[in-house]
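Example record used in the benchmark description.
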Amino acid sequence: MRKKKPTKHEALLWTIALPGFGQFLNGKIIKGILFSISEVVINVLSRFNLAILYSFNWNIQDAIDVIDYQWLMFYPCLYMFSLWDAYSDAEGESPPHFYLPFVFGAYFVTIGLMYSERILIFGILFGPVFLPILFLPIGLFIGTVIRRILLFYQQKKAQGTE
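Model output (structure tokens):
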């Protein structure tokens, strides 16, 4: 008896826990191993967990000082791509252009990361952990808006050709 594929939301939630877990759940073992190893390598070499520890203790300058931005810059794209990939491989058909919120999410998290040492919000420095998190909803929103515009014009074009 063949096992049923997980739902899209199951795959998404497992991937949020750790990139690669959603791929394991979908039966994509090689992809899961590659995503998981990549996540661990980037996490260790960027010293991201230490930066998270400092950030959650509100020692933002220590988080800035400890982080290796050269390595951490890989993280948003890896994370968002693994989310999209797990979602796409799970049971059910993916909606058209569903990749756009993930792409713009990764882009804006990366922008937040690049400016995390300089941008103050209400006079507060949020650093390399919290500022990218604050930029994520902006990217997801813009990607969703662009996706909906594309879908609207595709639907309009399809109606015009009938």
